[in-house]
Design goal:
It is built from 9 helices and 12 strands. With 300 residues, it is α/β, with parallel strands linked by helices. Strand 1, helix 1 and strand 2 form a beta-alpha-beta unit. The strands form 3 sheets. It has an 8-stranded parallel beta barrel with strand order 1-2-5-6-9-10-11-12, surrounded by 5 helices. A two-stranded antiparallel sheet has the order 3-4. The protein has 2 domains: 176 residues, TIM Barrel (Alpha-Beta Barrel), CATH 3.20.20.30; 101 residues, no CATH class. It is 36% helix and 18% strand.
Length: 300
């Protein structure tokens, strides 16, 4: 099982130097991956967090300044040699599939095949408005977007005739390192998204909140993948932990948080579930604290 962390790409205090240092140190201490995420803007009014029906609250200040997910990974690719470069998640619908497919393929080539793109459908109404994309594009439109990108990554000549996206017969390159394109992860928070990922032969990137939900989601995903004719073992699962690894044990803690010893016990549980990647997104600790505590975990 591979371990990683989110890069500090948000907030007014970050910088290219901080981002590069974090990635280089992550690689030096033995972490397997570094990750970015996407946010286009911070509305000045309360929003439904997570999408329609979610709790209404003021958007986090961090949303106001977020480095571009893919551009950051292109920069980090040049500063590292080994770590996997992941997104969790990139909102694919905000970009034309030809443009996004070429950007992904380019970074995949520049990094020597290290890119692991996690993509999602998006949830913030204001971002859809700013992108000129209707929220109704989610669902079937997302599936068609993925199909169009996969067509771009396939052999030339490329042609795609969809309801929403059309690609005239063309030569399009570069192609990704892996034939057919990089492995995709789908961000999933509801059963329909989990089923979609399984049916389309993508992996999953999930945020862990409690053990029962994670176990049930992984089991449902693997059943759906097998029913769709895919090998469940070939579809990776990544777990994002929104929390901290602490220097000392914690009495009341969320899964995969707490001291290195407590986290190591939880990682054994995730390994038994055949999870492929675990990475931490910690908005509280400093980067140096995160790297130190992750180094202690690796040593266990």
């Amino acid at each position: 099982m591979k371990l990683g962390l989110h890069l500090p790409i948000y907030g007014n205090d970050t910088s290219p130097e901080v981002i590069a240092h974090t990635a280089e140190e992550a690689e030096r201490i033995g972490l397997d991956s570094v990750w970015t995420w996407e946010r286009l803007l911070r509305p000045t009014v309360p929003i439904a967090m997570g999408g329609p029906g979610g709790p209404v609250m003021d958007p986090p200040e961090a949303f106001g300044s977020v480095y571009d997910a893919l551009d950051t990974l292109a920069y980090v690719a040049a500063r590292t040699t080994r770590v996997t470069l992941g997104t969790s998640v990139l909102v694919s619908l905000f970009q034309n599939p030809v443009i996004l497919a070429r950007r992904i393929a380019t970074i995949d080539r520049l990094s020597g095949g290290r890119l692991l793109p996690g993509i999602g459908q998006g949830w913030m109404e204001q971002e859809f408005t700013a992108s000129g994309v209707p929220m109704s594009r989610r669902g079937a439109g997302f599936e068609e977007h993925v199909a169009a990108m996969r067509a771009v990554w396939g052999p030339n000549p490329v042609r795609f005739d969809g309801r929403r996206y059309q690609i005239p017969e063309s030569e399009i390159g570069p192609k990704p390192v892996r034939p057919g394109g990089p492995t995709l992860l789908f961000g999933a928070a509801v059963p329909a998204s989990v089923e979609r990922a399984a049916r389309l032969g993508a992996g999953l990137t999930l945020v862990i909140f409690d053990w029962d939900t994670i176990r049930e989601t992984i089991a449902a995903f693997r059943r759906a993948a097998e029913a769709a004719g895919h090998d469940p073992a070939a579809l990776p699962i990544a777990i994002q932990v929104n929390g901290s690894i602490s220097a000392r044990p914690v009495d009341e803690r969320a899964p995969v948080t707490g001291s290195p010893e407590q986290v190591a016990t939880d990682l054994a549980e995730l390994e038994a579930l055949n999870v492929d990647h675990v990475f931490w997104n910690d908005p509280v600790q400093s980067t140096e604290e995160q790297l130190h505590n992750l180094q202690q975990l690796i040593a266990k």
